[in-house]
Design a protein that fits this description.
Elements lengths: L1 H33 L12 H6 L11 H18 L1
Amino acid sequence: MLDHFLNNLLQIVIVIDVLGAIAYFALGALKKKRRGPIPIDLKGPTLWQRLFTRRQQQTANASDKDFAQLHRVLYGFQDGLA
């Protein structure tokens, strides 16, 4: 009786797998038909230009309030570790 139940369950799982594979390929084919060509933007910098350009140093003006907040955060971590 258990063999019969497991056999039927296996058959159902196989049918669902086959239907899923068919749906996967059918939906993939439909998606390719609807999609147009991908536009390529050639106006930007090339890969080599992006790799070898020197990064400009970014600076930010920090106020005393910002340093006080940083001080509280860092010492808060120190107190949490102790």
